[in-house]
Amino acid sequence: MLNLFLSTMFLNTLTPKFYVALTGTSSLISGLILVSLNHISPLLGGEPVANNDNGNTTITNGTTTNGNSNNNSSNNHGQQSMPECKVWRNPLNLFRGAEYLRFTWKINKDPLTYYDMNLSAQDHQTFFTCDADAGKPEYEIMQTAWRERKPQARIKAANDALEKNPECATALILLAEEDASSILDAEKLFKQAYKYAEVLYKKSQQTMHLGQTQESIHRRDTNVVVYIKRRLAMCARKLGRIMKEFPILTMFNIHENLIEALLELQLYADVQVVLAKYDDISLPKSAAICYTAALLKARAVADKFSPDIASKRGLSTAEMSAVEAIHRAVEFNPHVPKYLLEMKSLVLPPEHILKRGDSEALAYAFFHLQHWKRVDGALNLLHCTWEGTFRMIPYPLEKGHLFYPYPTCTENADRELLPAFHEVSVYPKKELPFFILFTAGLCSFTALLALLTHQYPEPMGIIAKTALTWIYMPVSYILEKLEAILPSNLFQQLSRI
Fold it and tell me: 470 versus 433: which is more confidently predicted?
């Protein structure tokens, strides 16, 4: 009885200001909970509040290690530790003098970033130099040339090296890449460099077993020969002489170049053979592999595919296989479809790419868009189905479906690799639903009114009366007009009916 008396006395002592403050505080807390719900739900394994509409990186300078391995959950393979993301050299990178420089002259903008060119300089130093170069003037000059920041300084150093040794293959490589103004000129320089490089390669091959120094020389000579062969193949591809100069497939990792060349020749069966070798769960993936596999499956059904018919009768086995392949490709790199569907403009691809990033998507679409257009109905099938991927992976940063969760730092890395005038594609973009935003705004507005009423009760009372008067004025005006137009006994007649 005493407790009831004390409780009643306590409640009687509370003023209206307390209830106003309590209402405002509870409204504010409710708004904060609703806003944070979208971010807390994934951690608790709850249902998604917002949908993803569409795009962990430790940036390393190496180009030989993949950071994304396939994790096929449908085959019950165990989840492995998340690997680091790596920057890879673009296997189809363009020629600086014959292509990038012409772009710069045309629009007065540099398509390559300093970070990208610096990575290339480090690659060239790794590929084309060794410890045994000390004491050889032409090689010492080239070691300096690869580190030069300005193109003119690099070209001058290469010419100086050729004055010391007219058969310096690495100097000819630099001139072919940066000084040649056309693909034909670049090809001539590469062929000249290959003639000298092959002699050095055969010579070092005979002495490679004599010690570590000779082995490092042979490794350098091998890199030079392989690089020249690859670039000669690129020249041949651009000049219409496809595949004649491609090196042996097992000699170097050139399968993406080979896939693109075979697609140009429309040798789809040969493309399937290459994919069968490289599209394996234990091997690194790329956008070229995933999207080419999707293209081949789409080719079998795309010409007859109709979304209206498919929605009525359902998807056939072949159509389902094609759609699943598209979903797999989109999960690996969600940036590619917008370039293929020409929803976003292309720029020249960088010399280095980040797997699953916008840079890789740009490089893939730049060379493969024509192959998708050549297959009748393929882009229509992609347009109708690619966004369905995001329903399977509503939280791609936390959990993937067929691959590892999407890396969180690709945006920062791509901004370093891509020029400033290109709008970097970001994934995923999360948008709060309108209900969440409206409720949060309403709660915040209510809390603000409660706080102002608590601090300034009299002015807020006057404001409230004024606001009600303003609101009532148009309502009363409308009612007066209705009474003047309608008969006075209308409501009585309606009630009788």
Answer: 470
Burial of 267-286, coded b for 16+ CB within 10 Å and e otherwise, reads: ebeebeebbeebbeeeebbb
* Torsion sign (Cα): 401, 345, 237, 202: negative
3-state SS class at 354: strand
pLDDT digits (tens, 9 = 90+) for 36-61: 554 444 333 333 333 333 333 344 33
Domain range list for the chain? 1-50+432-455, 67-82+272-431, 92-252, 466-497
SS3 label, residue 407: coil
d(Cα 1, Cα 62) in Å, to the nearest integer? 80
Prediction pTM value: 0.70
Q: For residue 492, what pLDDT band results from cuts at 50, 70 and 90?
A: low
Q: Strand 87-89 and strand 352-354: pairing?
A: antiparallel
Task: Report, as an integer, the average pLDDT of 419-445.
Answer: 76
Residue 432 burial (CB count, 10 A):
15
Q: How far apart are CA 173 and CA 226, in angstroms?
A: 12
Q: What token pair was written down for 333?
A: 């790199």
Q: How far apart are the first and last CA of the chain?
A: 59
User: What is the token pair recorded at 335?
Assistant: 């940036």
Higher pLDDT, 66 or 205: 205
The predicted model gives 172-199 an average pLDDT of: 93
* Cis, bond preceding 428 (omega within 30 deg of 0): yes
**Side chain identity at 245, as an amino acid letter?**
E
Find out whether 217 and 132 touch, Cβ atoms under 8 Å.
yes
256 exposure class (CB count in 10 Å sphere: 0-12, 13-18, 19+): buried
The pair phi, psi for residue 23, each rounded to 5°, is -65, -45
For residue 100, give the DSSP letter: I
The answer to whether residues 95 and 103 touch, using CB atoms and an 8 Å cutoff, is no
> Is pLDDT above 90 for 410?
no
Please say if the pLDDT value at position 67 is more than 50.
Answer: no
Provide CB contacts within 8 A for 264, sequence distance 6+.
Answer: 237, 242, 371
Question: Do residues 294 and 323 touch, judged by C-beta distance below 8 A?
Answer: no
pLDDT of residue 130: 86
The single-letter DSSP state of residue 80 is P
Cβ atoms of 32 and 46 closer than 8 Å: no
Joined together, the tokens standing for residue 88 give: 């890879």
* Tokens describing residue 167: 């058969």
* Residue 85 or residue 234, greater confidence: 234
Query: What are the counts of helices (DSSP H) followed by strands (DSSP E) for the chain?
Result: 22, 2
CA dihedral sign of residues 32, 33, 34, 35: positive
3-state SS class at 310: helix
**Which residues fall within 8 angstroms of residue 271, CB to CB, at 6 or more apart?**
259, 262, 263, 292, 296
- Average pLDDT over every residue of 437-443: 75
Query: Under DSSP, is residue 6 helix (H, G, I), strand (E, B) or coil?
Result: helix
Q: What is the distance of C-alpha 385 from the center of its chain?
A: 19
